[in-house]
Write a structure and sequence with these properties.
6 helices; 177 residues; 79% helix; mainly alpha
Length: 177
């Protein structure tokens, strides 16, 4: 259930102001991959793709180009990466997965922006490097958000379990007294 809630939150945040790309998308995809049923992988992919189309067409008034399909493929890859974490992942693996997701999104999205939007940057090495340089401020905040939300998502079940266990123990002592 928590996996679905995280995906819905990630989609909702896309429609709210989120300064500098500080969003829970990576966390939701990694967590759904680790904890959600594989037969429902379509749910986060479809929800995020629909959100992208709505935002692109109606909020930003851009056209849908081939680079959007690359982003949707990246969503699927991060979801798959989450499956590699398993049900009880070590926090180090969770952090490394969040870092890998952030870095891969930065590299892929900036490259496809450079390649797809021919009027933004020259088709030269310098143009590509300019595109990457322009993305660095967004990358920093996206990386921070990815790490914070991913650690929180994977720590939440442990925290809930600990609180539940503590309440059970407290209840037993109260009943015995």
């Amino acid at each position: 259930m928590l996996a679905y809630i995280l995906v819905l939150c990630a989609v909702a945040v896309r429609f709210l102001p989120h300064p500098w790309s500080f969003t829970p998308i990576v966390a939701a995809l990694l967590f759904f991959g680790a904890r959600g049923p594989r037969k429902h992988w379509w749910a986060p992919l479809v929800l995020l793709a629909v959100a992208d189309v709505i935002l692109t067409k109606f909020n930003y008034a851009y056209i849908i180009t081939w680079d959007q399909f690359v982003t949707w493929g990246w969503y699927a890859a991060v979801l798959w990466l989450g499956t590699r974490l398993g049900r009880q992942p070590k926090m180090l693996y969770v952090i490394v997965s969040a870092l890998a997701s952030s870095v891969s999104f930065f590299l892929i999205s900036n490259f496809t922006t450079w390649a797809a939007w021919t009027d933004m940057y020259p088709r030269t090495w310098a143009g590509l490097m300019t595109c990457y340089a322009a993305g660095i401020p967004f990358f920093r905040r996206a990386l921070e958000g990815d790490l914070v939300f991913t650690v929180a998502a994977f720590a939440a079940p442990l925290a809930i379990q600990a609180v539940s266990h503590a309440m059970e123990n407290t209840g037993d002592h109260g009943a015995a007294a």
